[in-house]
Amino acid sequence: MNILIPPEFCRLVERMVASGKYTTPDAVVCEALLILERRNQERARLDAELQIGLDQADRGELIELTAADIKAAGRAGQLALAK
Questions:
Q1: What is the pTM for the complete model shown?
Q2: For the residues 43-70, what does the mean pLDDT come to?
Q3: How far is CA 4 from the centre of its chain?
Q4: Domain locations in the chain as residue ranges
């Protein structure tokens, strides 16, 4: 597979290899692709979570919260708000 990379990205890859963190340009590209894949997986997970919330809202499964409720939940380290 041959891929054309714009000059500014070629320079970035060269800088990354020169930094010593990566041994080859291939290693830089492989890590970048792994990061992209993880980001896409996280986006899909968040989209699924959002859809759950939207479905709950469509069914009327809502709770009313004030700003103080949200702040208190955040300070308590709660991941889910429930009443």
A1: 0.68
A2: 93
A3: 26
A4: 7-75
